[in-house]
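Q: Hi! First time doing this. I have a protein sequence and I read that you can turn it into a structure. Is that right? Here it is:
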Amino acid sequence: MRFFENKSLREVGEALGTTDDAAQKRVSRALERLREHFVRHKITAAVAGLAAVLSAHAVQAAPVGLSGTVATGSLATAGFSVATSSLLTTTKVIAMTTLQKFAVGVVLVGASVTIVYQQHRVSQLQQQNEAFVKQQTDDKALSAQIAQLQKERDAATNELASLSQENATLKNRPTEVLKLRGQVGTLEDQKNKLGQTAAINKMTATPEARQLLHDQQKLGMGMAYKQLAKDLKLTPDQTEKMNDLLADYVMRNIDQVTTALRDKPSAGQLNQIFAGENTTLDQNIQDLLGADDLAKFQDYSKNLLSNLTVDQFKDSFTGSAEERAAKADKLRQAIQQASQSALASAGLPADFQTIPMLNFVNIASEEQASQNVKLLQSIYQQVVGGAGNYLTPDEIIKFQTFMNKAMANNMAALNMNRAVMAPIGNQ
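A: Yes, that's right. Below is the predicted 3D structure, encoded as structure tokens:
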């Protein structure tokens, strides 16, 4: 009510049946708990800063994720937040551009293509805002579900401690001891189950909630592959079916990430799991569009980094329309060449996905996530090294700023998605 409905403390107090001071204390405690949550996941934030950010950007709701899609996190450089937010991130994403919002929606917690940090046109933001207004209510519901789950876990822990103490005092009473032991065992089972449940599991506990998350991933992936649909001249029905297949792919990967964070398989097993999901997607696309269009789909996916980067950075080009178009083409080619070089040096396949949030294994593995982000950084650094042939000094400085923001956004989106998909007992 205070930040997302812009109510005064008096209005909050009246709604809760309490005083202005009591409402202020509740808001302060909530901000402190939010700060502590971010600190636990290595995201530093001050209470005052959170309050300011929430007040300034409360109207910008992140699609699940994050509700970042994986959740579903950023296509280009910051992650698709499924979304769930991201996968699947439930947190509100501050100052997101159109593709940044999509990225958070794509990966559970928030899947979005956060390779971008530039502000898009106001009209584009307004259109996206209308699409995600519905998510505000669901984010609040998820927060309440998570709080309730943590409350149940804490209650079980406290009751377990109490019964254990009582058990010690009654050790000379065999019947009471046996009874208490049975209660302790039951409580331990309950606590273990709660600890193994992820926030995303609560979020998708009903068919309706899971369908909502699926639809958000479909919207985000549809944005990322919109140009491909045009290039292939797909009919509206084919485009709709392709976007459904992409959303299904994200949802399956969200489930795989959640399971992996719980069971902790080896690096080899992780790569095998997610490679299998990629194979399934390719087969589904081939069944829908045919072998020739599958090859074009694979090539498009491989070059998403260059296409999305150029799309996000194009407003920074100067000169005539022809000069700006030429710079865009040269930047796209430079990124593709740098990608091939970096992948070859790292011993990775040519079709390796260089956008960290589109590699769902990065949510399941912090180590692989760090390596993927460094790979992305090396690609951009190669581009900067040769950009003097077609970009002005001022454009190169802007691109370096863009690059640094992309690195930070990617890591933040990955961390947020991982936090939402990990078992609550690990948080």
